[in-house]
Structure formats: structure tokens, C-alpha cells
Amino acid sequence: MGSNGEMSDEIQHRSYWRFSKQDFLPEESFQSWGNYRSALSQTCFRFKDRLISRSDDVSEIGELRKQSENEMKRCLTWWDLTWFGFGSVVGAGIFVLTGQEAHEHAGPAIVLSYVASGVSAMLSVFCYTEFAVEVPVAGGSFAYLRIELGDFVAFITAGNILLESIAGSAAVARAWTSYFTNLLNRPSNSLRIHTNLAAGFNLLDPIAVGVLVIAATIAIISTRKTSLINWIATALNTAVILFVIIAGFAHANPSNLKPFLPFGAKGVFQAAAIVYFAYGGFDNIATMAEETKNPSRDIPIGLLGSMSIITVIYCLMALTLSMMQKYTEIDTGAAYSVAFQSVGMNWARYLVALGALKGMTTVLLVGALGQARYTTHIARAHMIPPWFALVHPKTGTPINATLLITISSALIAFFSSLDVLASLLSVSTLFIFMMMAVALLVRRYHVKEITPQTNLLKLVFFLLIIIASSMGTSAYWGLNPNGWVGYAVTIPFWFLGTIGLSMLPQQRKPKVWGVPLVPWLPSLSIATNIFLMGSLGAEAFERFGICTVVMLIYYVFFGLHATYDMAHLHRKAQAKEVNNGDMIGRNEGP
Question: What residues form the membrane-spanning segments (predicted)?
Fold first, then answer.
């Protein structure tokens, strides 16, 4: 008891703003060059250890949180989470992507694209909700995968999360400047600084940097105040969306819906793979579980409630656009603005631009919260320096983690147009959602030291069948979308894999809220996410592969050794506790 008190006093006397080597590289492997060379010589052994090692609920919820030294403040309710859901998801995507995909790929059937992608997103939401209720920590998908699939898989996911966070925020900030320019009725790029740098990097964007800094500052000051600002901004954005739907239907012409499927089913799914990202951002809500007053009640209401309403709103907005204008006449750059102009409502373009601007503002605001909490938990596990895990004692927010994401995003947003990163972000998102569904099935069907070895082998076998058959379906669709022979092979295999899983005994039941129809819904989530990944171009996977190789290089030279030392230290502490317990038992014996 005394040692805990001493540790608490020591933490209280240490300054939050400290920059010693021990704060960044406290692990044994980095204390000297000799230690580091020794660690590198054990890389294969350490990699095997990290590959098969798993964390557990208790460590993620309790032990790891101590790395932050101070607690985040529990101040959020289901009401806050619902509005965070709206703020995080409803950005510029619905205004930009709908017209583009209706014109180029789906026609009036764009509404079916939103239904398909909405169903896929809801399947992922189910998986996130069960994990967030059971493991209410700031790490989101990183923490969940660390528990079920191990350190290495969690690291690959963590790298993708950080990449997505930094590049995604930069892209939204650049788009904010574009919409702001449109709202002021000024020429495109007139608010950016023109330079002689290489194309794609020659338009410097100080406004994007300013927006990122303001959003991060609000997120740093207080989670509760951020929630209030998000609620006000999202309410205004929702009012604009309701206006678009009502005014759009008032000027609708049903004849514009014919032909309904001009590009066939292939066009619907091609568009679904793109508009899926209008649903992105809901995973930020799971990272706020640590600051939620009653996670088991508030998270399911906040996540499922907000995403259900958003799906309905998106479908109505897509239908509105298709009925206002013929799909061949829809403007791919400013669809809703031009559509309202075509029915004589020129002033509505400013309202649409304002709505998109409000939406992007809340996406950046909630993103600053969620991304910093991901980063905090990744740092708690020592995959990046633990200095980024520290929570400020007064604000109860992870200032260092917020600064890391904001500064990185601001540097990219200032220089880069980010066109090349758009499809890479898509692959990262779908990959993470697919891995979450796999992790949920592992959680339900495997418990360490309880599940028989034969059942574990069956679980792995059936999962491989589900993943392989889903990849086969996706590949066949890409190669021959009008054929059927390939589906006659791959789809039955998917069914066989899922039926095989359903015949295994579930080793764990959720305590409060769980995904219904397991294994069918998670298995369907794996299939849909892989299918949508297959709808993206080869270039996206090339970039994804390059980024993964860079992550692996970092892991081999830093992340692997830091996490190994951390786990080894934890095991030593546990062994010491057991030995002390045995000593006390012997001393108290007769």
C-alpha cells in the first residue's frame, strides 16, 4: 500500500512537460548501444514472442492505463456520443461523393449504393460496439486487436490508424479551405499561396493549418466543452441537411429516376466502395469509452443510434439529388449547389457550402479527440514513445498525443494536395474493419487455456475459408462482373466456413451487449469489407504495401524491442508478486 502512495506522490511531483531520454526511451533495449545491438541479435526470438503473445481485458483496462499517470475525466453520456457520431461521420463526403458517383458509376441507383455501404458500415459498428462495452479504453480497435490477435497484428493496425488519422485530417483541412473559398465566391485556390515547388506540393495552405490548430486547441482544453461545441455545430449542419432534403423533394421530378440502373449492378457496387467513406469516422466514438460515464449503456445507444439515423439521412439525400436532376446532368464538383441552381434556387449554393463547412469542422473536432486517444493507447503499449501516453492532470486530456497528430497533419496539409493518399486511406479503413470482425469471432470462440486445441485449429481453418472465399468473390467480381461460375464456387465455400464456425461451441458470451447472429453477421462483415477493398484500384494496394513495408522496418528496429521489454517487465512484476505471496504464505504457516 505504501509503495502505491509513494508512486502517486512521485507522479504528482513530476512535471507534465518533461523531455528526458527516459520519457521517450525508457526500455532496457535502448539504454546503451550495447543493449540495442543485443536486442537486434534477438530479433527473431522476440518477434516469435510478440507474434504469439496476447494482451487481456484486465491489462488493457487497468495496467496499461497507469502509463498515462493521470486519468481521463468521465464526463460523457449517450447524448454526447450520439452527437459525436453525427459530428464525426457527417462531413463533406455526402455533398461531394454523391454527385460524383451518381454521374459516373451508379446513376439514380446511387441510393442503393448508400444502402449497401450503410449495411456494411452497420456490421462494423456492431463489432465495435461489443468491444467498446467489454473493453472501455481509449485504444479502440488497437486495444481490441491486441487482446484477440496479438501485438504484431495490433501494430500493423496501429500504423494504419496513425496514417489514416494524420493524412485524413490533412485532407479534410485542405477541403475546408476549398469550401471556404467557394462560400466567399472567390476563384479556386485564391486563398492558397502559389510557389514553384513540384506539382501537388506547390499550393501552400495556411488556412488548413489554422483550422487544424483551432480544432486541436479546443480538444486539448476540455472534452466536455468540445462536446458542447460539437453539439451546436452539428445541430446547425443537421438543419442544413434537412433543408436540402425537404427543398429537394419539393422540386423533385420522378421521371429523372429513369433509367434507374444505367450502369448495371457493377456500377452500384463500384459507387458503394467509394461512398462507403462518407460513413467513416464512427470508430472515433469507441475511443471515448474511457471518458464515458456508463459505457455499457451509453456506447450502444450512441453508436448504433447515430449510425442508423445517418444511414437514413444519406439515402434520402441521394434520392433527393437523383430526383432533382437527370444523372447525366449532375455536376461532379458541386452537385447539390448546381442542382438547386437548375430549379431556380441560386442562393441555396451558399447554404450547401456552409453545411459542408460545418460538417468538416465537426469532423476535425471529433477527429482531434478520437485520434489523440488512439495515439495515447498505442503509446501506453510502448509501440511509440510513452511520452505520448501522458494525460494532463488539470485538463484530463492527452495533450502530447494531440500535438503529435496535429503537427504531423498540419505539415502535410500545408504542402500536399493529398490526391495520391485518398485511395490509400480507403484500403486502410476497410482493412481495419475487416480485422475487427475477425477479432470478434476469435473473442467469441477462443479463450486462452480453456478452448481445446482441436477447436482452436477448427476456428483458424474456418476463418481462413471465410477470408479466402471472400477474396475469391471480390477477385471474380473485378475480373468478370457479368459471370456467375466463380460465385458458384466462392459463395458456397463462404457458407460452409460460416456454418462450420456456427457448429463450434462459443467460449465467451458478452456480459451486457453483444453482436446478434454470431457468426453470420461478423462473417458477412469480413466478406463485405474484402469485397469493397477489391473494388478499389491496384494503385491503392501498391501504396498500402509500401506503407506497410515502412511500418515493418520501424517495427523491427524499434516497436518490437520496446513492446518486448515492456511485456518482459510486466511478467517479472507478476512473478515477483507470486513469489512474495508464496513467502507470506510460508511465513504464516505452522
Answer: 75-97, 109-131, 152-177, 197-221, 228-251, 263-282, 303-327, 347-370, 399-418, 424-443, 455-478, 484-505, 517-537, 543-564
